[in-house]
Amino acid sequence: MLFNSLSYFLFFPVVFALYWLSPRALKKPVLLLASYVFYMSWIPKYGLMVAALTTVNYAIGLLLGKFQNQNQNQTQKTNATGNTRMSTATRLTLTLGLVLNLGCLIYFKYVNFLFTTFTHAINSGVSFFHINAPKFYAITFDIILPLGISFFVFEFIHYLVDVAKGEKPVRNPIDFALFAAFFPSQIAGPIKRFEHFIEQLDTRPGHTGTALKFRGTDMHAGLALLLQGLFKKVAIADNLAILANAGFSPAVSMSTSDAWVAVLAFTFQIYFDFSGYTDMGRGSALLLGISLPDNFNFPYLAKSISDFWRRWHISLSTWLRDYLYIPLGGGRTNKNRNLFLTMLLGGLWHGAAMHFVVWGAYQGVMLALNNWYDALAKKNSALSNFHAHAIGKVSSVLFTFLLVIIGWILFRADTVTQALQIMQVMFFGVGQTATAVASSTASTAASTTASATASATTSAPLLWAALMRSPVIAALLIYSGYAAIFCLPRFLSEKQIQLRPLDSLGWAARIPFYAVVAITAIAFAPTQPSSFIYFQF
Questions:
Q1: pLDDT 10s digits, 447-503
Q2: What is the C-alpha to C-alpha distance for residues 142 and 104, in angstroms, rounded to an integer?
Q3: Strand partners, 252
Q4: What element of type H or E holds 270?
Q5: CA–CA dist 407, 360 (Å, integer)
Q6: CA–CA distance from 141 to each of 49, 112, 118, 138, 144 (Å)?
Q7: Is residue 242 within 8 Å of 451, Cβ to Cβ?
Q8: I want to staple 279 with a disulfide (CB 3.0 to 4.6 A). Which of 27, 191, 229, 458 is the partner?
Q9: Distances 293 to 155, 173, 442, 501 between C-alpha atoms, Å
Q10: pLDDT by residue (tens digit) across 488-514?
């Protein structure tokens, strides 16, 4: 069940009605049941896996809370300051929880990759040293990656670590189960922090907050985000996917202009696809009275790679900072090494393939160089003055965007070799790319069918011709006008984006506007939609 599918737009109104019409005591059970129905609509048996992980982490969290209370009481008796240190029992219990969660993630996501990489290394060694030995073949398992496993495992790890550090564990089992399974954020984030999420579920008698209360502002903002995300996904990202898939599919050589079209198509596809998913998830959650963290803040207008990672996939960036970068030593000891290791593991988190590892390493190197350049610019008045000027700011944005584009080539390509071939064609106009450019590509993209088919070898700029005839240009122009009116002013004021367009208008104006957005998105949609990119992670 995809956010942009007909089944979801039948499912969600039913959940919305049942949730708000149910008595207060039944609201959370209704939402929990709906979340499991949503998740199990793909592969039902994996709902049992989520339930098992939830049960185990709930029990470990309670145990950690118990040990922390005992440790705190004992420390307060002997130390007037009340400072506590993690006890041995707490450390062992936390280690057990981390091993169970990471073990589950490694089994489902990385076990075949590890066996394949190990076997390849052995065969390469045998060949290098000219050893007369038979070729080894990797043992592989028939494993289907559970949707969202990377995201909810990270949420479990965050919960256990924070409880071990002194946060109070969640004692209500329904609250904790809902934290793990909440369907608007379960499959591809954003990665929630349990303190903020559970606080919104507070139903204690006499509670003076606004939790679980229907608010008109949430209704308005939720619908706006939901429809904004729908337009991003079906009108823009799915049409860009046709061009990107044609450009990155193995087949024949491609012209320089086509290489740029394919790479730029994916660059904007992944943004509109992922931010569209986030908008639809956040919008759905707001309609249920729950606020989820934003994940994007105009990342392609970043002035540096560091700035980019403060604006792209914000919930993952902050998670990596808090639970990987800082524990490694942060900026206290060997900052560049810690940045590199963090991004290397962040790349591996995205997928069990070598090109993801290289992409992560590339991001780590770019961040280290960014730190070096920032330190140089602070000491050099000429560089400082240049970056303070409008020309310097624009140059920084364009150069950062180019570095991001290079990274996306590594991210999207099937192999590192294919990525290097595409870069060779883009920047030097020579070499063969592993791409599919067929004579039917232009007509295929124009009619918004699924993908181009490979045929005769050619270097004619067919993708460029397809782009010129694609409805995605009109869709991008419409969205750009919308963003310039409702979003860009808040970005220019350096404030976090909180999209609430049409706030000053009543429902009489909003309903027609929402209807036009929905109809326009459907009108631009290709005949065969694509899945959300981040579902594979």
A1: 433 333 333 334 457 787 788 888 889 999 988 888 877 776 665 655 444 445 555
A2: 15
A3: 435
A4: helix 256-287
A5: 9
A6: 18, 7, 15, 10, 9
A7: yes
A8: 229
A9: 13, 23, 39, 18
A10: 666 565 544 444 555 556 667 778 878
Angle of the 507-524 helix axis to the 472-486 helix axis, nearest 10: 150
**How far does CA 197 lie from the centroid of its chain?**
19
Cβ atoms of 320 and 367 within 8 Å: the answer is no
Q: What type of residue sits at position 489?
A: P
**Tell me, what amino acid is at 109?**
K
Place of tokens 């071990």: 164
Domain boundaries, given as residue ranges, for the chain: 6-213, 214-296+451-537
Q: Do residues 445 and 471 touch, judged by C-beta distance below 8 A?
A: no
Q: Which ranges constitute the DSSP H helices of 205-255?
A: 216-230, 238-248
**Token pair recorded at residue 529:** 């939609």
Q: Give me Rg for the CA atoms of the chain.
A: 25
CA-to-CA dists, residue 408 to 245, 266, 359, 411, angstroms: 14, 8, 8, 5
Could you give the angle at which helices 149-164 and 173-181 cross, rounded to 10 degrees? 140
Name the token pair of 357.
Answer: 């590892």
- Under 8 Å between Cβ of 186 and 284: no
Catalytic: 350? yes
Annotated catalytic residue: which of 350, 355, 387, 389?
350
**Which residue has 């069918």 as its token pair?**
449
Instruction: Retrieve residue 459's tokens.
Output: 């270097």
**If 0-12 CB within 10 Å is exposed, 13-18 middle and 19+ buried, where does residue 372 land?**
exposed
SS3 303: coil
Tell the residue number behind the tokens 């020309």, with chain if given.
391
Letter for the amino acid at 27? K
Amino acid at position 225, single letter: L
Q: How far is CA 292 from the centre of its chain?
A: 14
- d(CA 181, CA 170) in angstroms, rounded, equals 15
Q: Which alpha helices (H) appear in 288-353, and where do they start and end?
A: 305-311, 314-320, 326-328, 335-350
Q: Which of 533, 537, 530 is nearest to 145 (CA)?
A: 537
Q: Per-residue confidence at 434, pLDDT binned at 50, 70, 90?
A: very low
Query: Which token pair is 249?
Result: 């599919």
